[in-house]
Amino acid sequence: MGFEGEFVPVDEEVLKREKAKARELRQSQWWKNLRGQGVCYYCKKKVHPSELTLDHKIPLSRGGKSVKGNLVAACKECNNKKKYLLPVEWEDFVQGKLND
Predict the structure, then answer these.
(1) What is the pTM of this model?
(2) Nearest-CA neighbor of 84 among 53, 60, 51, 48?
(3) d(Cα 71, Cα 3) in Å, to the nearest integer?
(4) Which of 3.40.50.720, 2.40.128.120, 1.10.30.50, 3.60.150.10 would CATH assign to domain 12-94?
(5) 95 falls in which pLDDT band (50, 70, 90)?
(6) What average pLDDT does this structure show over 34-49?
(7) Average pLDDT rounded to a whole number, residues 34-56
(8) Domains of the chain by residue range
(9) Coil, strand, or helix at residue 15?
(10) 40 vs 5, 7, 19, CA distance in Å?
């Protein structure tokens, strides 16, 4: 991974494998339990579990992996706003330091 804000190309085969791992985890009891709590990791709002998406805190495009420690349940609104941001960049965005 490069410096903050720098995009380093991720190998297509690596992306493919990580996306497959994420699809597998979406079928797991771990994900069903996490989603079943109905709470967005980012905004902490309580939403219907069907409204939660699986999000990579460190996006795959930024070198993140599909492992439980990097995956969270996020409402669609937060997931769409976060896009490819790293956790520190998301915090800056939430605090109004980054433009939408």
Answers:
(1) 0.83
(2) 60
(3) 22
(4) 1.10.30.50
(5) confident
(6) 96
(7) 96
(8) 12-94
(9) helix
(10) 24, 26, 21
Residue labelled with tokens 């800056």: 92
Confidence (pLDDT) at 19: 96
Q: Which residue has the tokens 């597998």?
A: 24
- 6: number of Cβ within 10 Å: 8
User: 78: closest CA among 65, 94, 67?
Assistant: 94
Three-state SS string over 23-82 comes to HHHHCCHHHHHHHHCCECCCCCCECCHHHEEEEECCCHHHCCCCCHHHEEEEEHHHHHHH
